[in-house]
Amino acid sequence: MDIKAYLALSLTLFTIGIIGVLVRRNAIIVFMCIELMLNSVNLLLVAFSKMHAASTAAKASLTFASDAQIFVFFIMIVAAAEVSVGLAIIVMMYRNTHSIDVNFLNRLKN
Amino acid sequence: MNAIVFSAVWGILMMFSGVFVKSKATPKYLAIAGIILLLVVNGMELYTGQALFNIDTKDMLRVNSFNLTFLEVVFGATALFFMLSGRDVEKVGEHVGEYFALMFFVLCGVALSATYNTLLLLFIGIEIISIPLYILTGSDKRNLKSNEAGLKYFLMGSFSTGILLMGIAFIYGGNSNASFYINNIQLGLGAMPVMISIGLVFLLIALSFKVSAAPFHFWTPDVYDGAPTVFTSFMSTIVKVASFFAFIRLFENAFGQVQPQWQKLIVFITLATLLIGNITAVFQQSVKRMLAYSSIAQAGFMLLALFALNDRAKEGLVLYSAAYSLATIGIFAILIKMNDLTIDGFNGMGKTQPVLAATATVFLLSLTGIPLTAGFQSKFLMLMAAVENGHQFWLVIAAVLFAAISAYYYFRVLQAIWFKEAGETPVIEAGEIRSSFKLLLVITAVLIIVLGIYPELLLGWLYH
């Protein structure tokens, strides 16, 4: 497939993620949207990696462009670490307020 | 190199100290020992130019006297922070060892993000800084404000991480070298490739989030206000200057050649940061919140280094990190002990606590940038760097004017300290202040003045 198709798909996912973060009020769903953003980046990195491998295959070995695929693993690990911390914070908030609504978060303003 | 290894190992050690050490006071001494060890091993690497471990990082980390000096400044500030506020960390909650462990992990991230040479390690360094901070921000578990700050910081932080990663992906896609090394990006001859410029803007936005530059600053006051005050002190100094260092390292090494193409964006961000930080700080009643806004305002000044991007700017950045961290850690150490966090809480401090009042005066004068203090020298270097850059001279004038505005809200605190009568409740409980605490505050104040008179004591190391 053409790289443009991957680019379009992952940018669509990324935009859905951003809109979700800005619009949704449920902390868990906001969090899911952030994960969606990270995963769209994963998709894009893998697609770019294949694209580079195809264009540089003539002059260098295929392993040349595999950096991005390793990068994807790092993103997955970091996302997992973020999930563990983030869910703990959300649970902590739920215990104190019995709500996971982000709108609740406006007490500090005054 | 040394710093990365030792901070990670010491962090793990601190975690186990939470299990094996029953006394609540011990972790603090362990942490002070650890930070002194870090200072020594990093100083050794700076002095001899040789790391203790010979690890082949495939050039993914680059160590030179510039970033080692910066790390030495950061570790020095952390050491002072541990000694001044270590006892207040014990008051936050049960798990003292873990709090210190998390702070050591943050220091590991700081060391990574000061020495990285690939976008991968930039990302990992920034994440190692951020994730422990989410926990520290929300560590006061019963307090709703702390919960709120933790959740807000977490959501905003991971949102900006998503943007950062998108930027990295675009840079990688547009880079015909197909590599993540920041000094190996094909920027094109005339105009930048579209994907690189999109990536650059994404990276700029994400890193502005991390250093809380306007218009991406809106999370800062809430998070700094809600977090336990000890950790606000840590976040607003050490972490902030480290993120700045990563920011400038990226834009200098990766995009330095095409600076004219993105300089206008920096001008806009700098101006907006100075404007919003200074103007909003004027209206704050709580000193803690005022310091949060003033940290945005100071970030505006540090952005001048990104605008100028020359040798003078590097000197300025290191000195600014030292001056800003020392003064803010000092003022926060006093603030933590106080009963009332509003400006009125400082009323009559000059009569009841003369030593604290005098040192607070030095800290606030340094933050304003009055001559003879390190704050003046660092602001001066930043402005000089911006003038030497030769473009947009009016930005320098604007920065000076905003520095004048900042005098208003710092001096309001000074006025409360010296010229107002004390209220009914004492400013600080008498039993809170030990003579060792006073001594450390005086040492910090003296350091600020010494750096203000002889900045070359620190800056000489940049060219070691």
Structure explained in plain terms:
The complex is a heterodimer of chains A (110) and B (464). Helix content of chain A is 75%, strand content 0%. Chain A has 110 residues and is mainly alpha-helical. Chain A has a single domain (3-100), classed as Helix Hairpins. In chain A, helix 2 (27-56) runs antiparallel to helix 3. With 464 residues, chain B is mostly helical. Chain B has 18 helices and no strands. In chain B, helix 1 packs antiparallel against helix 2. The radius of gyration of chain B is 21 Å and the shape is globular. The model of chain B has no long low-confidence stretch (mean pLDDT 91). The chains are: A mainly alpha (110), B mainly alpha (464). At the A-B interface, helix 1, helix 2 and helix 3 of A face helix 5, helix 6 and helix 8 of B.
Give descriptors for this structure.
heterodimer; A: 110 residues; mainly alpha; 3 helices; 75% helix; B: mainly alpha; 18 helices; 0% strand
> What structural class do helix, strand and pairing data of chain A support?
mainly alpha
What general outline of chain B do the C-alpha atoms trace? Answer: globular
Sequence of secondary-structure elements of chain A: HHH
The coarse overall form of chain A would be elongated
Q: Roughly what is the average pLDDT of chain B, rounded to an integer?
A: 91
Share of β-strand residues of chain A:
under 5%
The biggest sheet of chain B, with number of strands, parallel, antiparallel or mixed sense and barrel status, is: none
Radius of gyration of chain A: 19 Å
Order of helices and strands of chain B: HHHHHHHHHHHHHHHHHH
Secondary-structure arrangement, i.e. CATH architecture of chain A: Orthogonal Bundle
Going by helix content, strand content and strand pairing, the class of chain B is: mainly alpha
Low-confidence spans of chain A: pLDDT under 50, at least 5 residues? none
CATH level-1 class of chain A: Mainly Alpha
Q: Mean pLDDT of chain A, nearest integer? A: 87
Q: What is the straight-line distance between the termini of chain A? A: 53 Å
